């Protein structure tokens, strides 16, 4: 059964795109087939995965019901396919919410033959509008990267309230994954990690993602860190995270 | 703070997650149910499906006066930047409750930006009061577009 996971946090700079790109490759390294959806009009996930020419077709036309998900997909590797945002996706960020409009992506997913994929990963923009509502409503699991500092915790606090609202309407998500990202060996980071684990317990993945040079360099080469620096600690971290997510959700 | 696990809790400062610890004892403090992008609206998003198309007019709501022009200008600029050259764009003004000369100027400026990109603009939902105001302002631009729409 295909697992659909939205990578979401309305706070920017927490590592959503980095997590999506590298987790996709890490899952693929474990033999999983992955569809990644770039729901951020900036298209940074697509660039990270080496799709730099900003294809015309993408999530925009899927949400307009002009194309199916698979028609709008591009091949990244034998195991990874990508739905780029499409050049006009920015227009949908400010669409007013009305009944039914939050379910357009879910409907598109129901109509697509997603069984060929083990995972669908959605990279959300750092906002809380139409695109994020559609991504979350289409997902059964949420993946929430959090930076271990005061502002990261503040963002997580807002996110936790938001998730409760969704669950009141949609029912509980099957899994909530909180990933501590951009970790550095500082007292404030350790303290924040303690707090996150105290409040969220086993929702927090054991694997922490450190702030490392290879992770920062890889997007500029249109590669995941697993491709750019396959023997790096950063690569190992994402594979370990993929194993944890892959095993617990089965 | 007030939690027992923070033996060196002097770097982080205030704990934004503290409410999670308190909530266990107060299960009634549930947030209001709405998945709206806009917190002001009471209309829930996730109702049974409708086939509402997205190729919708852009809807402006509320007053459009000097107090709002900066914000609305930013929104319209982003929208227009995202429109393809030679495309179509419909602006629904049915929700506009108040318009002053700044708001009017903003709309005309937005339409001029569209013209440069050869985007065909139409206006819908002009209320009677806004229409009267446009007459008073000596408008020819918006009303012509409304007639087209």
From TrEMBL, chain A:
Record's superkingdom? Bacteria
Q: Tell me the ranges covered by the AAA domain, including all copies.
A: 3-168
User: Protein name, please?
Assistant: ParA family protein
Which organism is the protein's source?
Answer: Alteromonas sediminis
Pfam family name, one? AAA_31
UniProtKB/TrEMBL annotation, chain B:
Q: Where is this region: Disordered?
A: 1-56
Q: Which SUPFAM superfamilies match?
A: SpoIIaa-like
Q: Any stretches that span the bilayer, and where are they?
A: none
Q: Name one Pfam family in it.
A: STAS_2
* Chain intervals with Polar residues compositional bias: 30-43
Q: Where is the composition biased (Basic and acidic residues)?
A: 1-17
Matching entries from InterPro entries are given as:
MlaB-like_STAS, STAS_dom, STAS_dom_sf
Domain STAS span(s) in chain numbering: 60-138
Q: Record's PROSITE patterns?
A: STAS
The name this protein goes by in its record: Anti-sigma factor antagonist
